[in-house]
Design a protein that fits this description.
Length: 385
Amino acid sequence: MSQLPFTSKLPDVGTTIFSVMSALAQQHGAINLSQGFPDYPCHPRLTQALGEAAQLGHNQYAPMPGLPALRQAIAAKLQLQHGSAFDADAEITVTAGATQALFTTIAAVLHPGDAAIVLDPSYDSYAPAIAAQGAQAIRVPILPPQFAVDWERVEAAVTPRTRLIIVNNPNNPSTSVWGTQDLAQLAAIAERHNLLVLADEVYEHLVLDGLQHHSVLAHPALRQRSVAVYSFGKTFHATGWKVGYMVAPAAITAELRKLHQFLVFSVSTPAQHALAAHLADASHWQGLSAFFQPKRDLLAAGLSQAGFGLVPSQGTYFQLADYSALQPDMDDVTFARWLTTEHGVASIPVSVFYAQPPQGMRVVRFCFAKQDSTLQQAVQRLARV
Ligand code: PMP
Ligand code: GLN
C-alpha cells in the first residue's frame, strides 16, 4: 500500500539524532561521544544480581506499579535525599526507563487542544509525545552561553489551554543546573496558572563542581503538583536496562497508573530485583560527581587545547563545545557529521533541540561517560582538527 490508511500523528518526525549519529560513528569507525551512554561496564554486583534473580526464578510478571522491594528501596533513597517520607505504594511507579514515564505523564495529562510548555533546548522526546496527544508544545527558548531561564518569558507563554510545564534539571543538552531561585519561580508560575510540573531529573546525581541538585521533591509546593522522573540507566551506568521510575502525589499517581498498566503493564522482573538490592547501598549512587568530574576535566582540557570554546558543564555527563574558531561557516549538523567522518569523533549538534535554533549557533555536545582511554584517544584526534 503506497498510502497510509490513516493520518500520521507525527508527520514531521524522523529518526532521532542520537540514532543517526551513533550509526554514523559506527559506519566510520569513529569514537562515539554522541549518544549518551557509558562505554565501561556497570558494577559487577549489579550484573551478578541480575543473573541470580533470573536463576532464582524471578522471571514472571512483576506487580503493575513495580516490585514492592524496589519501590521500598526507592522510598528509602528519597527519604535519605529529601528528608521526608514517600509512600512506596501510592506515590512511586517503576517504568520502562525515564522515556516511558515522560510519555505516560504527557499522555495522562494532555487532551487534544491543550498546551504544554517546553524549555528549549529540550530533550527530543518531549515535543513528539505532546504532539501525539493532539496537543501543542509551546517552546520557550533558553539561550547560550549562560542558558539562564527567563521566567517572565516562560510565564508570558502560558495560555488558558496550558496544563503542563516540562522541565529538565540538570539539563540535557545545555548542562546547566538550577538554583533555588529557579525552583521558586517555577513554583510561583505553576501555582498561579494551576499547571502540573513534569520534572525530568534523570541527571540528579551528575552535578559537578560542588553544586547542589535542587529537586522538585524537596520543594513543598512543587512536590504537590509535580511528577518527578528518574532513570537507573543514568545512575547505574546501565542505559540498556531501560528501568526508571516516577514519583507523584497519590491522586496523580493513580491517573498515571491507569495508562501505565496498558502501555507496559509492568517492567522487567529480574532487573527490578537486581536494582532493589543495588539501591540499598547508597555508595552506589552517592559518588557519581567524584567519578565524572575528572572525566569532564580531561575532555574539557582536550577540547580547549584543540581550539574549541567551552560552555562550562555544571551537570549531566555532557560537555558543550563552541567550534566557531575552527569552522565558522559550518552549521552544527554539518560540523558534527564532518567531525565524525573526517576526524573520527562523533558528537551531537545542539540546534536540533530547538524549535527555532538561535541564529549562528556553533555548538556541539560531547559525552564524557567514557573510559579515560577513550577520552584520551578522542582528544588526540580532536587535536588534529
Ligand atoms: N531524559 C533525559 C534528559 C535524557 O537525557 C534521557 C536519556 N537518558 C532520558 C530522559 C531517557 O532516559 P531512559 O533511557 O531511562 O529512558
Ligand atoms: N539520553 C541520551 C542522550 O541524550 C539518548 C537516549 C536515546 O538515544 N534516546 O544522548
